Model the fold of this input.
Amino acid sequence: MLTKPQRISLYGVVLAFFCLYPANSIAAPAKKPAPARIRKTSPAARSSTPVHRSSMSGNINILFGQKLLDDNDWEPVENQFEFGIEADIKELSWPVSITMSYAHSSDDDTVYYYDYDPYWRSSGDIEGKTSELNIGVKKIWDQPSGIHPFLAGGLSIIDAEREREFWETRNHVVVRWKSSDSDSGLGIWFGGGIYWTLNQIFNLGVELKYSHAEVTLFNEDCEAGGLHYGILLGYHF
Done:
């Protein structure tokens, strides 16, 4: 069983700045110092001064949306709210970016069971949760307008958990029982989307993604991945 991922490794960028200092001039003791000559620099020459820029760029985004799981495996908690964070980084010479993301989804519901026997009834609370750690590559197409379409894919580690708690009443006697099970699976993910970078800093966009991994819950094989969709908000550096 795989360990449940809890942390996201984010990348940092180090910028180096260099300063140049002119050497001190030595005046001749026997001669009268000549008047200083003022050199005028044209705007074109000033604009040609080299500017040191970082060769790395990337994004850090927060995701809000929905995860749709297989209703045959997860009903009635197959439609789950999802929250996550993702980061990508790229060197100027790389054709694609390296990306990593972590997302958590959950939902809960109450179900009721009745029989023809008036002295028997049952109800229960069901909760389903998944967590995904995705690692892969992302291709981003930069447009002059600041709009960036992208495609991405890679490997996924998915944790899944389901919890059931029931109350059963029979002949005026209440019986309560609770059970839970969890498992992890290794799979794949792929998706795409589009975002707009405002003022070359802030990202706003949408994303659609699909993930797949099989797990075993309560002795039954089920799908832990699903269809993901939502909005992204973030920072470009």
Remarks:
- Residues 1-30, 44-52 have pLDDT under 50 and may be disordered.
